[in-house]
Amino acid sequence: MKNVTINQQILPALGIGTWEMGENPQTFNTEIAAIRTALDAGLRVIDTAEMYGNGQAERLVGQAIQSYERSQLFIISKVLPQNASARKMRRSLAASLKRLRTDYLDLYLYHWRGSVPLAETIATLQALQDEGKIRAWGVSNFDLEDMQELWQLPQGNNVAVNEDLYNLETRGIEYSLLPWQKQHQIPLIAYSPLGRGPILGNKMAQNPAVIKVAQKHQATVYQILLAWVIQQPQILAIPKSSSPKHWQDNLQALQIKLAPADLKILEQAYPKPEHKEPLAIY
């Protein structure tokens, strides 16, 4: 099984995304079953945020994890930019912990940059870590310049991760951001690793190159797309799935080893960036 190390914890390179989950009472039980299917198979990371469904995703996660040993889970949530001040962040964290029914987070992320000075946000995150309310902190939707600015702040180099949009057709961060993060040993959490749209990864899933590699491995196109994201070291992919069956399929991606010939086929269809691109954000 492929692994990543975050805050000195070795974790499976596949985590459970929860964007747009918990919002529909009719699918609530199925979504809980999906999360539990992934956890029962050995996954440990659950990624959520106060923004997702105005807290409904956190409530879903809180219910889903009740029968599990908390120390075996790695729970991530995120604070909105408007709540990232010294005054408001503690209130936001307390509300997230209550919805999640836990007394600490393994990782707390600044969801994206807003008007609060970065130094204030980072100092508050660090204080929460020092107090034991969170085990580590990180950022999300940060580009290279943001990371460089962060790195210059007092204790800015305590950042545990950066979470960005990354998949086979959205490779802009490979030009300068990913190399910088590797140099500074900061793992990447890749959100929307299957793409996004009316049908997840619709264009990628229909691409002949992806289909060819999938057929070679007797795998689904989605398993190949996930395997491509996590074949690099220190990248954690967090696909969202509301279906237990989809999670059983996703888990197989951890066992797929893409050969250099496979990567070449995929790269011809989706080339590496040759220049700096604006950070892609959903």
List the helices and strands and how they pair.
Blueprint lengths: L2 E4 L2 E4 L3 E2 L10 H13 L4 E3 L8 H9 L9 E6 L6 H15 L6 E4 L7 H13 L6 E4 L3 H8 L10 E4 L11 H7 L4 E4 L10 H4 L2 H10 L3 H10 L4 E4 L5 H8 L8 H10 L13
Parallel strand pairs: 3-4, 4-5, 5-6, 6-7, 7-8, 8-9, 9-10
Antiparallel strand pairs: 1-2
Low-confidence stretches: none
CA gyration radius, whole angstroms: 18 Å
Quaternary organisation of the protein chains = single chain
Residue share in helices?
A: 25-40%
Widest sheet: strand order?
3-4-5-6-7-8-9-10
Q: Please write the string of helix (H) and strand (E) elements.
A: EEEHEHEHEHEHEHEHHHEHH
The proportion of strand residues reads 5-15%
Give the overall shape, derived from the CA principal axes: globular
Largest sheet: 8 strands, parallel
The total strand number stands at 10
Instruction: Give the number of helices.
Output: 11
Structural class: alpha/beta
Task: Give the overall average pLDDT.
Answer: 95
Distance between the termini: 29 Å
Describe what this molecule looks like in 3D:
By secondary structure, the chain is of the alpha/beta class. 38% of the residues lie in helices and 14% in strands. It contains eleven helices and ten strands. The strands form two sheets. Strands 3-4-5-6-7-8-9-10 form an eight-stranded parallel beta sheet. Strands 1-2 form a two-stranded antiparallel ribbon.
